[in-house]
Amino acid sequence: GLSTQPIWRKLWDDVMKTRPPNSESITCWRKKFLETFFSNVLHGVLDVSSDWRLQDRHFSPLLHSSPHVSQLTLCNMLQGAVELTAEHNHKVLENLAGSLRILKFQHLLSCDQSIRRSLVLLLHRLIHHGSVSQVSMCSWPVPDTILLVLILTMSAGFWRSGNALACHGSPCGLCREEDKAQSQEPAQEGAERGCTAEQEGSAAENQKGSPKEADAHMTSVLSGPRSSPLRNPASEETSSEVPCGHTSIQGSSSPHSSSEQLSCHPIPRKTRRWLKPAVGRKRRCLRRSRGHCADPEDLYDFVFTVAREDNSGLLDKTRTTEGESSENWTSSSPGSPCTGHAGCKKRGGPAGILPLKAAHRFRSVSTLELFSIPLTGETCRTLSNLLSSWVSLENLVLSYNGLNANISCILAGLRALSRHPECHFRMLRVSDVFSHMPCLELVRCILSALPQLHTLSVSFDLKNQLEGSRPETNPSCSEAEVPESCLEVLEIRFPREPLHTAFLLPVLKASKSLQQLSLDSATLPCPQELGLLLEALKECTPNLKKLSFHDVNLAEHQKEVLLLLQDPGLQEITFSFCRLFESSSAEFLSEIINTVKRNSSLKSLKLPGNRLGNHRLVALADIFSEDSSSSLCQLDVSSNCIKPDGLLEFTKKLEGYIQQRGGQLPFTHLRLFQNWLDQDAETAQEALRRLKAVCSVVNDAWDSSQAFADYISVM
C-alpha cells in the first residue's frame, strides 16, 4: 500500500543526473524513469558503467526496461533501429512489440541501404506484428524521400511481397508460421472463394510437399538475386486461364495478436493457393510477375511505385510533374481480372516492380503525425494514395508541411477513405505558415469531403504572399451547402483574416453536434459581427459546451462578453489575450463578477493575457462569496502581471470565504503561469503554500526580467 514514487524520483536523480522537463506534470515516476532509461541506453546517452548498480553481468538494461516502454523516439541515422534489430536484442524487440504504442522519428538523416533494411525489420515487427498505434515524424527540413515514403507505406500496413524481410537469411518467423497455418486449410475453402473445384483440387495436390521443401522454396523466392526469374513453367501454363476478381486493397483492422495477421510472403506459383483474408477484407489474387523480379533490397523502386498507383480512381486525370512526362492516372474498374503475364495491373515504374495493389496488407497504425516535414507534390500523391484505403486511421496531424494547394490532393485520398464502410477516421489537424485559401472556405471543403469527422483543426500563420490581391472570401461560400456532419470540435486559427459570420453559418448549421468551438487570431470586420456570431451559435449549436477566443480584440465588445458569461449552456469560456480591460471601466469588472456569480453552469473561466494585475485578481475572489451560486471550478489567470503581494491578498480573501461557507468551496484549480512571482520570492512562497491548501495550483519558475528583456529585444 506504500507508494514507490519517491524511490523512482531518487533513482532519476542518482542515475540520470538531470532535471526532468515538465516534472510538475509527471504522474508516474516509475514509467518516466524506465522509458527514459531505455532510450538513453539505446542511444548511448547513458553510460551503464557509470553506476555500480548497473554493472551486474546478469542485468541487461534494455531487456529489463523494455516491457515498460510505451513510447520510443528514433533520431538521426536511426542507430537505435540498427541496435534493436541486432540478433542479441531479439528478446528486447519482442518485448517492445507488446508494450510500445507510440513510435516517433525526429531529426532524421539520410541513411544507407543496410540501415533502411534494419528499419524495415523494426517497423514490420512493431507495427505489422506489434502494438504500435501511433507514428509521429517531426523536424525533418530536407526529408529523404525514400525513407519518408518507406515509413509512411509500412505505417499504412503495406509491405511489398518481393521485399524479403530476411532476418539473418530466413523470412519473418511470424509470417512463416501463418503461411504454414494457411497451407493446412481444407481444400473446400477454395470453393467458397470463387475458385472451381478442379482448380482447388489441383492446388491441394500441389500442397502435399513437405513443409521443409515449401519453406526452402519460399526462402529461395524471397531472397533470390535480381537475375533469377521468379517463374514456374508448370504453373505459367495455366496462370492465364484463372482470372480472379481484382479490387484495390482495402485497409485492415488493428488486431493485437500475431495469429490475426495476414501473411507477408508471396505464395509460390507452384501451389496456386489462395490467401485466407482477415474478416472484412476483400479477397484478391496475388500473382508473381513472369519477368525478372526486382532486387528484394531495392526499396527505391517500391516506394515510388506507391505514388504511381491509383486507388479507387483517386487521381483520375492526367498530371504532368517536373522531370516527368505526362501520365494517365485512369483507374481500372473494380473487379477486372488480373492479367496473366504480369500479375495485377501496374501504373508506371520499372519493369518487374510489384505495384501497391500487389503488396500485402498488414496491421496499420491509427494515428499519423507529420510535424515540420516539407511534402512535395509527389510525396503528397503517395500519401493520398495510402490514405484512400487506410481504414484503421483515426487521427491525422499535418503541421507545417508546406502543403499549399497540395491540401486538395490529401483531401482526395481522405474523401475516398470516408466512403469505405470500415472507415474509422475521426480527427484532422492541419496547420501551416501560409494559407492558399480563406480558412472558412477550407473548413467548408474539408467538412464537405469528410462529414464523419469529430474533430477538425485548421491553423495558419499568414496569408499566401502571392495572393495578396485575391478577394478576402469567396462570395459563393455562404451559399454553398455543407452536408450534415458529426463534428464535435472545431478549431480555427485565422491568418489575421476577418471573421464573417455569414461564411461560418453553413458550417454551424451542418454541425448540430458541435460541443467545442475555438476561434484564434480573427479580426472582427464590424462592431455588430460578434453579436451576429452569438446569435448564430445560439440558433445552430444547442450542444455547445466550450467556447474559446484567442487573440481576438474584444475591448469594444463588453456587452457580448457579458452575454456569453451568462449563457446557461456553456461550461467553459476562454478569453485569451483578448484585451478585455484595455478600455473598460471599473464597472465592467463588477458586472463580470456578478454575472459569473449568478451562472451555476459555468465550470471553467480562462482569462490569460488580459492584464488583470493585482487589484482585478483580488476582485475576482468575490466570485466565491457567501451569496454566490457559482459552480466555477477552474480559473486561469496566467500572463496577467500578477505580483506576489496581490496573490497573497487573493489567497487571504479566499480563505475568508471558505470560513463563511463552512469549508465548502467549488473552486479546485488555479493556473498561474508566467506571472511576476519572482519579484518577491518569500511572499510568493507563502501565498502559494496557503493557496495549495485551498486548491490545486499550477505555476512555473518564470523569469519575468528575462521575459521583459526578450520583449524589448524584438520590438
Secondary structure blueprint with pairings:
Layout: H1 5-16, H2 29-42, H3 61-65, E1 71-76, H4 79-84, H5 90-99, E2 102-108, H6 113-128, E3 134-138, H7 145-155, E4 158-159, H8 173-183, H9 189-192, H10 197-206, H11 211-222, H12 233-239, H13 299-308, E5 318-319, E6 327-328, E7 360-361, E8 367-371, H14 377-387, E9 395-399, H15 407-418, E10 427-435, H16 439-449, E11 455-463, E12 489-493, H17 501-510, E13 516-520, H18 529-540, E14 546-550, H19 558-565, E15 572-576, H20 586-598, E16 604-606, H21 613-620, E17 634-636, H22 644-660, E18 669-671, H23 681-691, E19 696-698, H24 704-713
Parallel strand pairs: 1-2, 2-3, 3-8, 8-9, 9-10, 10-11, 11-12, 12-13, 13-14, 14-15, 15-16, 16-17, 17-18, 18-19
Antiparallel strand pairs: 4-7, 5-6
Helix pairs in contact: 1-2, 5-6, 6-7, 7-13, 7-14, 13-14, 14-15, 16-17, 17-18, 19-20, 21-22, 22-23
Verbal overview:
This protein has 715 residues and is of the alpha/beta class. Among the domains are: 426-463 and 483-543, no CATH class; 545-714, Ribonuclease Inhibitor (Leucine-rich repeat, LRR (right-handed beta-alpha superhelix), Alpha-Beta Horseshoe), CATH 3.80.10. It is built from 24 helices and 19 strands. The strands form 3 sheets. A 15-stranded parallel beta sheet has the order 1-2-3-8-9-10-11-12-13-14-15-16-17-18-19. The protein is globular. This is Leucine-rich repeat-containing protein 41. Residues 220-241, 326-336 have a biased composition (Polar residues). Residues 248-263 have a biased composition (Low complexity).
